[in-house]
Write a structure and sequence with these properties.
Layout lengths: L3 E7 L3 E4 L8 E5 L2 E9 L7 E7 L7 E8 L2 E2 L2 E6 L16 E2 H7 L7 E2 L22 E2 L1 H17 L7 H7 L9 H8 L3 E3 L11 E8 L2 E12 L4 E8 L6 E4 L3 E2 H4 L16 H7 L2 E7 L1 E2 L12
Parallel strand pairs: 9-19, 10-11
Antiparallel strand pairs: 1-4, 1-8, 2-3, 4-5, 5-6, 6-7, 12-18, 13-14, 13-18, 14-15, 15-16, 16-17
Helix pairs in contact: 3-4
């Protein structure tokens, strides 16, 4: 029998409270979307109301109580969803447009001293088909880091067989509101990646994720180098100014300039490394592209997993 987990599906924004009581301290708003249910109180504190304590990483306390029902008015649906199985790890050994992981890891050294700068981002090298601002200064943001790293690796490996241009660059920058997941679209259409089966499945090694905390505000583009199924931890590589980072590094671990280019051994045991569940609870709207990366060793998982 498949393992399930409980979620609350909010069709509207709800107020969050410290206790299951709307007269208790207000903690913040919980945006529409699906949230993991940590605890339920039905017909509490009177028969007129139901409450649920939800995992909401965007709030300071990481969880909050919401009223899911008042009399006959239902504010949220409580659902039991099947836990998706660990994804099959594809080798991409026969993919003509795949790249060896070593091409990506050798490029990471160029980002060691980069700092985060949202509006004045620079690139460490020229990319094909587009004119972009070059470093110095060594500053970038989430979109420019992912584009610079992946496009350089694939274009160096495949030359003219890999096409990149100003239109693809605009997709990476989410320059149009016609596609809020355009970095994922660009990765798939250019041949760098394949679409994930769904936004919710655990990520494959070297997954490009475009996530939004709200619809459509507070977006973020990042890479998941690997997913440790037993702990649900994800090795996230990104440019950010939060979660222990100011520039390029691994979320919850540190900047490349501080820890080096490789993550620590058994990074999945570190307490500040995020789980995929926390990622999905934070970026309520998201899409994935699984990049065609072969001969993977950076995460230390390829030989450690069955």
């Amino acid at each position: 029998m498949a393992e399930t987990y409980r979620v609350a599906r909010l069709p509207i924004r709800l107020r969050g409270f410290v206790r299951p009581d709307t007269s208790s301290q207000f903690e913040g708003y919980v945006e529409l979307g699906d949230y993991h249910v940590l605890e339920e109180r039905r017909s509490f504190p009177t028969p007129d109301t139901d409450y649920a304590r939800l995992e909401v990483p965007t709030l300071g306390a990481l969880d909050t109580w919401v009223c899911t029902r008042w009399r006959t008015q239902q504010y949220a649906r409580i659902l039991d969803l099947e836990k998706p199985p660990a994804v099959a790890r594809l080798s991409f050994s026969v993919e003509p447009l795949a790249v060896d992981e070593e091409r990506l890891t050798k490029l990471l050294g160029a980002f060691r001293d980069y700092r985060y700068e949202l509006d004045q981002a620079r690139y460490p090298w020229v990319l094909p088909g587009v004119v972009l601002p070059q470093a110095p200064p060594a500053v970038n943001n989430c979109c420019t880091f992912v584009e610079a790293l992946t496009v350089k690796a694939f274009s160096d490996a495949h030359g003219s067989a890999f096409e990149w241009d100003a239109r693809r660059h605009r997709q990476m920058m989410i320059a149009s509101n016609e596609d809020y997941f355009s970095p994922v679209t660009a990765a798939v259409e250019s041949g760098m990646g394949i679409p994930a089966p769904s936004p919710d499945v655990p990520p494959h090694p070297w997954t490009l994720v475009q996530g939004w905390r709200n619809q459509w505000r507070s977006g973020h583009t990042f890479l998941v180098v690997d997913h440790h199924a037993a702990t649900d931890k994800v090795l996230t590589l990104e440019s950010n100014t939060a979660y222990g980072l100011d520039g390029v590094g691994y979320r919850g671990i540190g900047n490349l300039r501080d820890i080096g280019l490789k993550p620590p051994a058994k990074w999945w045991e570190l307490p500040d490394v995020w789980t995929w569940r926390r990622v999905t609870s934070t970026y309520l709207f998201r899409q994935q592209a699984w990049l065609k990366v072969r001969n993977r060793t950076l995460s230390g998982l390829e030989n450690a997993l069955p």
